[in-house]
Amino acid sequence: MKLPSDFARPRRHLALLLVAVSLTTSAAAQTTPPVEQPTRHLFTWEDAALGGSFILGTLAVRPLDKSAARALQSPDRQTRGFYRRSASFVRTVAQPGSTIIGLSMYAAGRFANNDRLAAVGLHGTEALLLGAVAGTVMKDFFGRARPFVDTTGPNPDDWQLGRGWRRGGNYQSFPSGHSTAAFAAAGAVTAETSAYWPGATYFFIGPVLYGGAATVGLSRMYNNRHWASDVIMGAAIGTFAGMKVVRYTRIHPDNKLDKWLLNATWTPADGHIAFSVLPALGRFASSRR
Protein backbone atom coordinates (compact mmCIF):
# COMPACT_ATOMS: atom_id res chain seq x y z
CA MET A 1 0.00 0.00 0.00
CA LYS A 2 1.35 3.39 -0.98
CA LEU A 3 1.28 6.01 1.75
CA PRO A 4 -0.06 9.52 1.10
CA SER A 5 2.55 12.16 0.36
CA ASP A 6 2.23 13.65 3.86
CA PHE A 7 3.33 10.30 5.28
CA ALA A 8 6.19 9.80 2.85
CA ARG A 9 8.97 10.94 5.15
CA PRO A 10 7.58 11.35 8.67
CA ARG A 11 10.91 10.68 10.31
CA ARG A 12 12.52 13.47 8.32
CA HIS A 13 9.76 15.86 9.34
CA LEU A 14 10.05 14.92 13.00
CA ALA A 15 13.82 15.26 12.86
CA LEU A 16 13.47 18.80 11.48
CA LEU A 17 10.98 19.59 14.23
CA LEU A 18 13.36 18.36 16.91
CA VAL A 19 16.18 20.45 15.44
CA ALA A 20 13.98 23.57 15.53
CA VAL A 21 13.00 22.98 19.15
CA SER A 22 16.61 22.25 20.11
CA LEU A 23 17.85 25.45 18.48
CA THR A 24 15.37 27.63 20.32
CA THR A 25 15.97 25.96 23.67
CA SER A 26 19.75 26.11 23.27
CA ALA A 27 19.51 29.82 22.51
CA ALA A 28 17.38 30.31 25.60
CA ALA A 29 19.88 28.49 27.80
CA GLN A 30 22.67 30.86 26.77
CA THR A 31 20.91 34.22 27.11
CA THR A 32 21.13 34.47 30.90
CA PRO A 33 23.81 37.06 31.70
CA PRO A 34 26.62 35.86 33.98
CA VAL A 35 26.25 36.89 37.59
CA GLU A 36 29.57 38.76 37.36
CA GLN A 37 28.04 41.14 34.79
CA PRO A 38 24.52 41.99 35.98
CA THR A 39 22.40 44.05 33.64
CA ARG A 40 20.42 47.13 34.64
CA HIS A 41 17.96 46.69 31.79
CA LEU A 42 15.00 44.35 31.77
CA PHE A 43 15.27 43.88 27.99
CA THR A 44 18.59 43.62 26.15
CA TRP A 45 19.89 42.88 22.66
CA GLU A 46 20.24 39.23 23.68
CA ASP A 47 16.48 39.16 24.13
CA ALA A 48 16.04 40.44 20.59
CA ALA A 49 18.29 37.66 19.33
CA LEU A 50 16.35 35.08 21.32
CA GLY A 51 13.03 36.43 20.07
CA GLY A 52 14.34 36.28 16.52
CA SER A 53 15.36 32.66 16.97
CA PHE A 54 11.87 31.78 18.17
CA ILE A 55 10.29 33.59 15.22
CA LEU A 56 12.57 31.76 12.80
CA GLY A 57 11.84 28.48 14.57
CA THR A 58 8.09 29.05 14.31
CA LEU A 59 8.33 29.94 10.62
CA ALA A 60 10.51 26.91 9.93
CA VAL A 61 8.13 24.55 11.71
CA ARG A 62 4.86 26.03 10.40
CA PRO A 63 4.95 24.15 7.04
CA LEU A 64 5.43 20.89 8.97
CA ASP A 65 2.35 21.27 11.19
CA LYS A 66 0.16 18.92 9.17
CA SER A 67 2.77 16.29 8.32
CA ALA A 68 4.12 16.20 11.88
CA ALA A 69 0.59 15.77 13.26
CA ARG A 70 -0.13 12.91 10.91
CA ALA A 71 3.18 11.24 11.59
CA LEU A 72 2.66 11.31 15.36
CA GLN A 73 -0.91 10.01 14.99
CA SER A 74 0.13 6.98 12.95
CA PRO A 75 -1.21 3.70 14.43
CA ASP A 76 2.33 2.39 14.89
CA ARG A 77 3.18 5.23 17.28
CA GLN A 78 -0.19 5.60 18.97
CA THR A 79 -0.39 1.94 19.97
CA ARG A 80 2.98 1.87 21.72
CA GLY A 81 2.52 1.79 25.48
CA PHE A 82 5.87 3.42 26.17
CA TYR A 83 4.96 6.47 24.09
CA ARG A 84 1.54 6.82 25.74
CA ARG A 85 2.90 6.48 29.27
CA SER A 86 5.76 8.89 28.60
CA ALA A 87 3.42 11.50 27.11
CA SER A 88 1.09 11.24 30.09
CA PHE A 89 3.97 11.53 32.56
CA VAL A 90 5.63 14.62 31.09
CA ARG A 91 2.25 16.31 30.59
CA THR A 92 1.46 15.87 34.29
CA VAL A 93 4.92 17.11 35.30
CA ALA A 94 4.29 20.28 33.28
CA GLN A 95 0.78 20.91 34.60
CA PRO A 96 -0.01 20.81 37.45
CA GLY A 97 3.42 19.44 38.38
CA SER A 98 5.33 22.67 37.77
CA THR A 99 3.09 24.65 40.10
CA ILE A 100 3.19 21.98 42.81
CA ILE A 101 6.97 21.68 42.58
CA GLY A 102 7.46 25.46 42.66
CA LEU A 103 5.26 26.00 45.69
CA SER A 104 6.84 23.02 47.45
CA MET A 105 10.33 24.38 46.85
CA TYR A 106 9.28 27.76 48.19
CA ALA A 107 7.71 26.21 51.30
CA ALA A 108 10.70 23.93 51.91
CA GLY A 109 13.07 26.87 51.54
CA ARG A 110 11.12 28.94 54.05
CA PHE A 111 10.92 26.19 56.66
CA ALA A 112 14.59 25.29 56.22
CA ASN A 113 15.71 28.96 56.06
CA ASN A 114 17.26 28.23 52.67
CA ASP A 115 16.92 31.50 50.77
CA ARG A 116 18.19 30.09 47.49
CA LEU A 117 15.67 27.25 47.42
CA ALA A 118 12.84 29.60 48.39
CA ALA A 119 13.82 32.09 45.67
CA VAL A 120 13.90 29.38 42.99
CA GLY A 121 10.45 28.17 44.03
CA LEU A 122 8.94 31.65 44.30
CA HIS A 123 10.32 33.02 41.05
CA GLY A 124 9.48 29.83 39.20
CA THR A 125 5.87 30.07 40.36
CA GLU A 126 5.71 33.75 39.39
CA ALA A 127 6.98 32.85 35.92
CA LEU A 128 4.29 30.18 35.58
CA LEU A 129 1.59 32.70 36.43
CA LEU A 130 2.98 35.33 34.06
CA GLY A 131 3.27 32.81 31.22
CA ALA A 132 -0.23 31.47 31.88
CA VAL A 133 -1.77 34.94 31.67
CA ALA A 134 0.01 35.81 28.43
CA GLY A 135 -0.73 32.42 26.90
CA THR A 136 -4.41 32.49 27.83
CA VAL A 137 -4.92 35.90 26.24
CA MET A 138 -3.27 34.69 23.03
CA LYS A 139 -5.26 31.44 22.99
CA ASP A 140 -8.55 33.31 23.18
CA PHE A 141 -7.50 35.97 20.69
CA PHE A 142 -6.16 33.75 17.89
CA GLY A 143 -8.88 31.10 18.16
CA ARG A 144 -6.92 28.34 16.46
CA ALA A 145 -8.61 24.94 16.23
CA ARG A 146 -6.83 22.02 17.84
CA PRO A 147 -5.63 19.20 15.57
CA PHE A 148 -8.40 16.79 16.61
CA VAL A 149 -11.26 19.21 15.86
CA ASP A 150 -11.46 18.63 12.11
CA THR A 151 -12.47 14.97 11.74
CA THR A 152 -11.73 14.97 8.00
CA GLY A 153 -8.03 15.47 8.66
CA PRO A 154 -5.63 17.85 10.38
CA ASN A 155 -6.19 21.46 9.33
CA PRO A 156 -3.52 23.80 10.75
CA ASP A 157 -5.05 26.78 8.90
CA ASP A 158 -8.26 26.92 10.95
CA TRP A 159 -7.88 30.30 12.69
CA GLN A 160 -10.56 32.78 13.72
CA LEU A 161 -9.77 35.83 15.83
CA GLY A 162 -11.66 35.90 19.11
CA ARG A 163 -13.11 32.40 18.70
CA GLY A 164 -11.34 31.14 21.80
CA TRP A 165 -13.49 33.42 23.96
CA ARG A 166 -16.70 32.32 22.27
CA ARG A 167 -16.21 28.57 21.75
CA GLY A 168 -13.80 27.47 24.44
CA GLY A 169 -10.97 24.94 24.70
CA ASN A 170 -11.25 23.25 21.30
CA TYR A 171 -10.31 26.58 19.71
CA GLN A 172 -7.51 27.58 22.05
CA SER A 173 -4.64 25.70 20.45
CA PHE A 174 -2.16 28.57 19.92
CA PRO A 175 0.07 28.64 21.92
CA SER A 176 0.55 25.43 23.91
CA GLY A 177 -0.18 26.04 27.60
CA HIS A 178 1.74 22.98 28.80
CA SER A 179 4.77 24.05 26.77
CA THR A 180 4.51 27.54 28.20
CA ALA A 181 4.49 26.15 31.75
CA ALA A 182 7.41 23.79 31.12
CA PHE A 183 9.58 26.47 29.52
CA ALA A 184 8.63 29.07 32.14
CA ALA A 185 9.89 26.71 34.84
CA ALA A 186 13.03 25.94 32.85
CA GLY A 187 13.70 29.61 32.16
CA ALA A 188 13.22 30.73 35.75
CA VAL A 189 15.21 27.92 37.37
CA THR A 190 18.06 28.22 34.86
CA ALA A 191 18.27 32.00 35.27
CA GLU A 192 18.06 31.74 39.06
CA THR A 193 20.69 29.02 39.47
CA SER A 194 23.11 30.75 37.10
CA ALA A 195 23.87 33.14 39.97
CA TYR A 196 24.81 30.28 42.30
CA TRP A 197 26.29 27.58 40.07
CA PRO A 198 27.04 29.07 36.63
CA GLY A 199 29.08 26.09 35.43
CA ALA A 200 26.49 23.51 36.44
CA THR A 201 23.70 25.63 34.98
CA TYR A 202 25.37 25.95 31.59
CA PHE A 203 26.45 22.34 31.19
CA PHE A 204 23.82 20.41 33.14
CA ILE A 205 20.82 22.24 34.65
CA GLY A 206 19.96 24.28 31.55
CA PRO A 207 20.20 21.43 29.00
CA VAL A 208 18.25 19.04 31.23
CA LEU A 209 15.44 21.49 31.99
CA TYR A 210 15.08 22.84 28.48
CA GLY A 211 15.35 19.35 27.01
CA GLY A 212 12.63 18.17 29.36
CA ALA A 213 10.46 21.13 28.39
CA ALA A 214 10.87 20.20 24.72
CA THR A 215 9.58 16.69 25.45
CA VAL A 216 6.48 18.24 27.04
CA GLY A 217 5.76 20.03 23.78
CA LEU A 218 6.23 16.83 21.78
CA SER A 219 3.90 14.99 24.15
CA ARG A 220 1.15 17.53 23.45
CA MET A 221 1.59 16.91 19.75
CA TYR A 222 1.56 13.16 20.34
CA ASN A 223 -1.74 13.55 22.23
CA ASN A 224 -3.11 15.46 19.22
CA ARG A 225 -3.78 18.58 21.28
CA HIS A 226 -1.33 20.98 19.65
CA TRP A 227 0.44 21.80 16.42
CA ALA A 228 4.22 22.06 16.21
CA SER A 229 4.05 25.85 15.85
CA ASP A 230 1.90 26.02 19.00
CA VAL A 231 4.74 24.37 20.87
CA ILE A 232 7.37 26.78 19.57
CA MET A 233 5.29 29.81 20.56
CA GLY A 234 4.60 28.31 23.97
CA ALA A 235 8.34 27.80 24.39
CA ALA A 236 8.94 31.46 23.52
CA ILE A 237 6.37 32.80 26.00
CA GLY A 238 7.50 30.50 28.79
CA THR A 239 11.19 31.17 28.31
CA PHE A 240 10.73 34.94 28.32
CA ALA A 241 8.44 34.76 31.36
CA GLY A 242 11.01 32.79 33.33
CA MET A 243 13.97 34.93 32.35
CA LYS A 244 12.20 38.26 32.85
CA VAL A 245 10.88 37.41 36.31
CA VAL A 246 14.37 36.54 37.52
CA ARG A 247 16.02 39.48 35.80
CA TYR A 248 13.47 41.86 37.27
CA THR A 249 14.21 40.62 40.79
CA ARG A 250 17.94 41.16 40.20
CA ILE A 251 17.40 44.69 38.93
CA HIS A 252 14.93 45.40 41.75
CA PRO A 253 16.11 43.34 44.75
CA ASP A 254 13.84 45.33 47.05
CA ASN A 255 10.64 44.62 45.13
CA LYS A 256 7.64 44.11 47.40
CA LEU A 257 6.92 40.47 46.57
CA ASP A 258 10.44 39.35 47.38
CA LYS A 259 10.59 41.61 50.40
CA TRP A 260 7.39 40.10 51.78
CA LEU A 261 7.59 36.47 50.70
CA LEU A 262 11.34 35.82 50.95
CA ASN A 263 11.65 37.40 54.37
CA ALA A 264 9.33 34.97 56.13
CA THR A 265 11.03 33.69 59.28
CA TRP A 266 10.53 31.16 62.06
CA THR A 267 12.02 32.15 65.40
CA PRO A 268 11.65 30.37 68.76
CA ALA A 269 10.59 32.55 71.70
CA ASP A 270 9.61 31.27 75.16
CA GLY A 271 8.33 27.94 73.93
CA HIS A 272 6.44 29.52 71.06
CA ILE A 273 7.19 29.89 67.37
CA ALA A 274 6.94 33.41 65.98
CA PHE A 275 6.15 33.33 62.27
CA SER A 276 6.29 36.35 59.97
CA VAL A 277 5.14 35.98 56.36
CA LEU A 278 4.53 39.65 55.64
CA PRO A 279 6.97 41.66 57.76
CA ALA A 280 5.29 44.91 56.82
CA LEU A 281 2.09 43.72 58.50
CA GLY A 282 3.78 42.63 61.73
CA ARG A 283 4.51 39.29 63.32
CA PHE A 284 2.00 36.58 64.05
CA ALA A 285 2.61 34.07 66.82
CA SER A 286 1.28 30.56 67.02
CA SER A 287 1.61 28.47 70.15
CA ARG A 288 3.67 25.34 69.72
CA ARG A 289 4.76 23.24 72.70
Mean pLDDT: 81
Radius of gyration: 21 Å
pLDDT under 50 segments (min length 5)?
A: 1-8, 30-37, 278-289
Terminal residue distance: 76 Å
Number of H- or I-type helical stretches:
11
Q: What is the number of beta strands? A: 3
CATH architecture of the largest domain: Up-down Bundle
Task: Just give the CATH class of the largest domain.
Answer: Mainly Alpha
Number of structurally distinct domains:
2
How would you sum up the major sheet?
Answer: 3 strands, antiparallel
Strand order of the largest sheet: 1-2-3
Order of helices and strands: HHHHHHHHHHHEEE
* Percent in strands: under 5%
Oligomer: single chain
CATH topology (fold) name of the largest domain = Vanadium-containing Chloroperoxidase, domain 1
Which class of secondary structure composition applies to the elements?
mainly alpha
